[in-house]
Amino acid sequence: MGAVPAAAAGADGERPRVLLVHPAFLGDTVFLGPAVRALKARWPGGRVTLVVSPRGAPVAALLPGCDEVVPFDKRRGDAGLRGLWRLGRRLRALRPDLALVSHPSLRSGALALLSGAPRRLGYAPFCNERVALDRTRPFVERALRLAERAGAPGGTGLALRAPAARAAYAERLLAGAARPVLGLVPGAEWATKRWPAAGWAELACRLGGTALILGGPAERGLAAEIAAGAAGKPVLDSTGNSIEEAVALLARCDLVVGGDTGLTHCARALGRPTLTLFGPTHVERHLFGPRDRPLSLGLPCQPCHDHGPRRCPLGHHDCMARLEAWAVAEEAAALLDRAS
Which of 138, 194, 280, 316 has a 20 to 30 Å separation from 261 between CA atoms? Predict the structure, then answer.
């Protein structure tokens, strides 16, 4: 791909101010990492600003190559036309030369337009270089494809820094924990991507060391159920902490097992051995490295949805309910052995 034209690359052609707009789920923010690294590698003196959801903002700040994060609270503080206009003025003050819009929504395209960026390249309306979104491509390739078209090719590997400011918190919580530390991520935005609590409890019992349960406030009840089912097994419940605290803990796990959800993908990006349990969503939308792998039953009805429906279309949820704890434990143990 050709380089960004001088008019879109900053006054000297080598220090462009680039917006990358993708205000979606936490996992989607992780998948922006390869594009961010590519942009920074192409223009080390440039400035890369990410416009993401409030939940994704702490992770965006940990992506190598990211200089600035602007949260877009599209459902609360920045809701409606007034909120969109207000945030657009804030982005315009950054004087961006280039806006990459990897989120295909009308609002994302409008933000790019309101930012005043002369070149708007992406999948959304209002982009003056509109690209057709191929939803069959792996998630990491979608933003990376736009970076390539802007003149910044790069590799597809995930990467995330551990938050140094939360190191003491993680060390304090894990002090004295028996190794290996097994990170469990049982929650997910969509219920159909969640493995039953009984499976998590049995998994914790089958694997040695300490089980560390991670998740948001909504997972507190689920964590208590898992801990009760794993009676006699050392269990630490960290649910309800901040995203940065959760990432600091993930960085210290010897192995992470979770569903197709944001914190699980954070563990992958941190380079931790990670086993991802897939139910209704597409395994092929992800690119796996040597230290992480997917596990799916491969039923005829799988996959059935891009991000997970609220209810199983067939009413049985077999893709997760029939996933046996012994099988998950075998895969997890094998992955831990290979990693060590």
Answer: 316
Question: Average pLDDT, whole number, for the chain?
Answer: 94
> Could you give phi then psi for residue 135, rounded to 5 degrees?
-75, -5
Long-range contacts of 234-240 (CB under 8 A, 24+ apart): 234/177, 234/178, 234/209, 234/210, 235/204, 235/210, 235/211, 236/173, 236/174, 236/177, 236/210, 236/211, 236/212, 237/213, 238/173, 238/212, 238/213, 238/214, 239/187, 239/213, 239/214, 239/215, 240/215, 240/216
Q: Is the pLDDT of residue 75 over 90?
A: no
Diameter of the chain measured on Cα atoms: 65
Q: How far apart are the first and last CA of the chain?
A: 40
Q: Give the pLDDT score at 2.
A: 35
Q: Distance (Å, rounded) from C-alpha 246 to C-alpha 251? A: 9
Q: What is the pLDDT of residue 14?
A: 78
Full set of structural domains in the chain with CATH = 6-149 (3.40.50.2000), 165-339 (3.40.50.2000)
CB atoms within 10 A of CB 52: 28
pLDDT number for residue 13 = 57
What CA–CA distance (Å, rounded) separates 267 from 257? Answer: 9
Q: Do residues 183 and 258 lie in contact, with contact meaning Cβ atoms separated by under 8 Å? A: yes
What are the DSSP calls for 77-94, one per residue? Answer: TT-HHHHHHHHHHHHHTT
Alpha-helical segments (H) within 98-219: 106-114, 139-149, 167-174, 197-206
- 117 or 310: which leads in pLDDT: 117
Q: Give the count of beta carbons closer than 10 Å to the beta carbon of residue 79.
A: 12
Q: What's the half-sphere exposure (Cβ side, CA atoms, 13 Å) at 168?
A: 1
Q: How confident is the model at residue 265 (pLDDT cuts 50, 70, 90)?
A: very high
Q: Are 168 and 69 in contact (CB under 8 A)?
A: no
DSSP per-residue letters across 32-46: THHHHHHHHHH-TTS
